Amino acid sequence: MMPDVIATPASKPWISKRRLQIASGLVLFLAVGIATTAISRESPDYFRNIWARLDAIWEARVGEWLDSSGPKNPKLQLEEHQRRYIAEAAQHQSKGEFDKAAASLRKALALKGSRQNVARYRLAKILAQQNQTTEAIREIQSLLQRTPGHIEGMILLGDLYVHSGQLSKALEIYRESYLREPEDIVLKRRLQIVESRVRSVQPEAAEPTEEALDPTQVLINAERFISGKEPARAVNLLRGAIEKAPDNARFHFLLGAALVQMNRRNEAIRAYEKVVSLSPDWLDGYIRLGALLESKGRDKDAIALYEKAGQLDLNDIEMKIRIANLHKSRNRKKIAHKILLDLLEKNPRSSRVLVEFGVFLWETGKPIESKKVFLQVLEIDKNSAPALNRLAWFHRRDKESLDHGIKLSKRSLEIQPDTPAYLDTLAELYYRNGESVKALPLIQRAIELDPGNRYFRLQLEKFKRASRK
Question: Rounded to two decimals, what is the model's pTM?
Fold first, then answer.
């Protein structure tokens, strides 16, 4: 007959061999920790290294066992494993164990986490160091196919082409890199060297019908004109160059910059539209065009542009912040709030994201929550001028802590001097502290830097009236 109650299986003993081993390990770990802490007063560096190793053992062995009881996020596990393989590769490389380092990086790549670019770039560099040029080129090409704007990868690919004697390909990739990083002096020198080598091996034309265009020299001269506040000369030079090379995106980019300097914004917009059509993966082109669209009140067009640009680099924080701010300016605060929360979830230790979130909370009438966020920013980055300035502003109504607010404000100006908003904060704090005379030169300097700001002029009048009393 079937029993009335199903027999209960025998329970496993709570004290097992495995658990005794772990308990012994914990006791030993704590004993050594206490001992080294006591002795480290005499020899801190030596025992600090020992403690670091014990810490690593804890994380790798004991920590893993302790975490095994709770549910795990497979995606987070994958990311952690990939990070460890990359760190392991760096250790092997520092010891000269290049084959082991390459093997660890290949394991990291197989996991397909968010650090694919880092692992592939480092693998290509190791292969290049080992003179495995063909394999290194293949890895970098794969990286650039995934992320076309990876500037370090582009430069490495150019170096590899030079090393393998493929000068024309090197010249092409260096030129493309220079379009993205025109301020890089080392890259500019690389480009000039390869251009001269290419010219030296190419037969000269018998009788050229017109002077050949030198793109590098055009760019150098145009940049000189723009930085020297001679935009008209830059425009004339660049338009002549564009007639000969209409598909050179860098020419159009600098043309847009010169036209902005001349306040010809509609023409500048057309120039930057040409940039993004010729080079659709050039983020700086999208940023310049978006800023111009914002200045013309075309927020909807700017949002669409930024969202398109955001697809080029899903980890681009700046682009998403711009989108959030545009939604906020159009009174779509719920959308802006959601974008910022998503960014915070993915980048919880980003001071840039936290500052924007703190400003958002402030502007939406949540000062207490805002203050907490700015304090969190200072825990991450004690030199965050925006956080120091905002926290200083919180003290403007609290007479007991005005002195502390003044200290915070002064610190923000040490980090970012001549910032109009920060000058206004310090001036306001001096005014609240009964020191209006000190406030006057600060607000006058803010007006010099931002003469169109009506609020600063109202502040000046307020401080003048107070100083007369």
Answer: 0.45
DSSP classification of residue 6: P
Residue 383, both tokens: 């030199």
Q: 248: which residues sit within 8 A by CB, 6+ positions away?
A: 215, 241, 242, 278
Residues 6+ apart with CB under 8 A from 13: none
C-alpha to C-alpha distance for 14 and 146, rounded to whole angstroms? 52
d(CA 6, CA 2): 9
By C-alpha distance, which of 52, 65, 73 is closest to 19?
65
User: Tens digit of pLDDT for each residue in 395-445?
Assistant: 876 666 888 999 999 999 999 999 999 999 999 999 999 999 999 999 999
Q: Which residues contact 266 (CB under 8 A, 6 or more apart)?
A: none
Q: Which tens digits make up the pLDDT trace of 172-231?
A: 888 777 777 776 666 777 777 877 777 665 544 444 444 566 787 888 888 888 888 888
Structure tokens at 219: 């760019």
Counting Cβ atoms within 10 Å, is residue 102 exposed (0-12), middle (13-18) or buried (19+)?
buried
Residue whose C-alpha is closest to residue 168's, from 148, 192, 197, 137: 197
One-letter-per-residue 3-state SS of 63-74: HHHHHCCCCCCH
The C-alpha angle with vertex 404 and arms to 401 and 409, in degrees rounded to 5, equals 125
User: What six digits make up the tokens of 37?
Assistant: 């802490």
Count, residues in the chain: 469
Tell me: pLDDT of 461 over 70. yes
Separation of alpha carbons 389 and 406, rounded Å: 10
